[in-house]
Amino acid sequence: MIKDLFKMEPSGQTVSVRGWVRTKREMKNLVFVELYDGSCFAPIQCTFDRSASFDAETEDALKRLSTGASAEICGLLLSSPAKKQRVEIAAKSARIFGEASAETYPLQKKGHSLEFLREIAHLRPRTNIIGAAARIRSRLAFAVHAFFQERGFQYIHTPIITASDAEGAGAMFEVTAPCHKGDFFGRRSFLTVSGQLEGETYALALSKIYTFGPTFRAENSNTARHLAEFWMIEPEIAFAHIEDGMTLAEEFLKYLLKDILKNRPDDLAFFDERVQNGLVSMLETISESGFAHISYTDAIKELEKYSDKFEFKPVWGFDLQSEHEKFLTEYVVKGPLIVTAYPKEIKPFYMKQNSDEKTVQAMDLLVPRFGEIIGGSEREDNLSRLMERMKELGMDAAPYWWYLDLRRYGSAPHTGFGLGFERLVQFVTGLANIRDVIPYPRAAGLAGF
Ligand code: ATP
Ligand code: MN
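^ inputs. structure came back:
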């Protein structure tokens, strides 16, 4: 693939590449064809010297090749006189696989808006920007697995169809099948909003687990941060307290950033130049810094000092708005921040309560320019306290009998967190809209194909 050619020492050896034409330029005696195959950011330049003669197939290809066409080009690998690339191909032959009509190919010109590209989701991976986002997404997914596997975590596939609402996390999509008497599953069933509860059952058997799978929320909000279908990573560790979760979250995020900085510098350089200036140095700094910690209560006190700066006034007992989160990370601590001990009213039923009876052992990891990227907690492992909290919240405990069993048999302190995978890719690329970091975004009124 092209990425391998860029690593070779050019010595006039014969090579061949297959890919798609990024650009074709014709000079008097030279034809330049830039070919890309998606294996790396840069295309490779193939130069045809018209003073030589080519076979009929090559002549035909040179006529019909245009932006978007697919071809195979063979030639000699030479060092390139051009500044932006190290090697190029002195082309000897070319063969076209498929044309792309210059009149109708939608990506004929560069510089289309991201909005326009969303309308041609099937072709947009051929653009620099969506191709780069896809490579970063792929590498990050690999790094997620590498991080946990290196540390002895087992990968658990939690169900996509479920009967329980993990945390009132969001409205659920109902699953049903036509032509069936009553409910297909014998009861109302939904697409999962989180794998956490099932993940806990395996953590209390295998000690350290993680999930990484699709998650669904019927969000009404049409925001640049929400999808109806997204991927979530949820580690869960037994015999661990909230501090262990915080350490894990910090190590995890730093590991992912270091990995992507090392393995996709070409794509990151593009996002730094075109999407968010200073992106690479920000990611480097975060990957090496120690994360600050603050309690929710202290964070509110801090925010109250700047009350007039906010659209939503910071008030104890209400969730931090994203303007508050950004302010804390960008102006107060100037770096990543872990906020702990949130009021129990704004957090789900399963979080372990602090002795003050007002707050829970929750932790949110906030990052500059973005706000919350990870949310987690120590779970309530005491049966009666958990049941009491469910009662307070007016929850019916019956459907949770299996979840409560974890507290009946061999209960142990355990801790976990969730990272929305698309939010991570957004943060790493600087892309403002979550719809550009997943191949086929699903949102209210937008299923596409
Ligand atoms: P938000 O307040 O942004 O809606 P949340 O509090 O509902 O997030 P959690 O229930 O804690 O989020 O879910 C865990 C993680 O999943 C979040 O930190 C976020 O990264 C991601 N996430 C949540 N909802 C969505 C969504 N609709 N689309 C994409 N990612 C999401
Ligand atoms: Mn939400």
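The chain has two domains: 2-98, 124-436. The domain at 124-436 is CATH 3.30.930.10 (BirA Bifunctional Protein; domain 2).
thumbs up if we can close this ticket
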